[in-house]
Amino acid sequence: MKVAAALFALCISTSPARAELTMMVSGDKEPSMSLKGTVTLSGNDVPALSKSTATINGNLIEVTTPGEGGSEQPVVLRGALLKAKLTESSFTGYVALGDNPYLAKIDDPEVEELIEINGGQTVSGHITEISQAGVKISERTIPFNQISRLCSPTIFEFSCPIATEVKPEGESYKSTSASMELKRTTSIDKKNKSGKRCCQFPPLMAPTKKQKKEGGGHHIHIIIPI
Fold first, then answer.
1. In the chain, at which end, N or C, are there fewer CB atoms within 10 A of the end residue's CB?
2. Mean pLDDT to the nearest integer, 187-198
């Protein structure tokens, strides 16, 4: 997968003493967010990334996971946050980690990828580029605002529980989080007895009472650092 330099040219500063991601949000109808800090990664679905940390600056992310046996050099994965959404209790979206041999420990890199477009249409193939214009798959670039779901062995769902409540709309506010849970977008292929994974979208679940109370949340435009 080719990733635009604007998305992945990440400049890392010294990590803070403790894990903390700071989210500064401003605006009402089209809210924007600036992100900076470090979080610890969790999630039983991605054990290869356990004990890892992620440094985030804007929509850029760099994941550092310890080397095997403690003596090898740490593995570094670079990527970007995509389609971020903020509710009263969490910050969610996708993490695209691009090409790296280490990802083969997590999922099958040859899995055919899948994008669902608003309205239910799906496009399959292999994602070859992610840029400001959108996601390119099968020689077609799909803008982010037309994408409802993504499935790829290199793209993960993320969720960060936020430590402070969202203030009323129209006000700028600051929130923090110390952790990020990752979940694979692929699933086990029930038609294949070998237990291999594949891209398939499960039926959409009805919103929970908590989700109904929070409403649809804000789709956030994340400011990209210069």
1. C
2. 77
Q: Does residue 16 have a pLDDT over 50?
A: no
**Residue 158 and residue 92 in contact, taking contact as beta carbons nearer than 8 Å:** yes
Contacts for 47 with CB less than 8 Å, ≥ 6 apart: none
Instruction: Return the half-sphere exposure (C-beta side, CA atoms, 13 A cut-off) of residue 111.
Output: 24
Give the phi and the psi of residue 72 in degrees, each rounded to 5: -75, 160
What are the sequence ranges of the domains in the chain? 8-98+153-222
Q: Indicate if the pLDDT at residue 221 is higher than 70.
A: no
Residue type, 57: N
Task: Look up residue 19 and give its amino acid.
Answer: A
Q: Considering only CA atoms, which of 24, 31, 87, 35 is closest in space to residue 61?
A: 35
- What mean pLDDT is predicted for residues 4-33? 60
Give start and end residues of each alpha helix (H) in 130-169: none
Q: What is the pTM of this model?
A: 0.81
Predicted confidence (pLDDT) per residue in 126-140, tens digit? 999 998 889 999 899
E strand intervals along the chain:
2-3, 20-26, 32-42, 53-57, 60-65, 75-86, 90-96, 113-117, 122-125, 127-131, 134-137, 140-142, 147-151, 155-161, 173-177, 179-184, 187-188, 197-198, 218-219, 221-222
CA distance linking residue 223 with residue 226, whole number of Å? 9
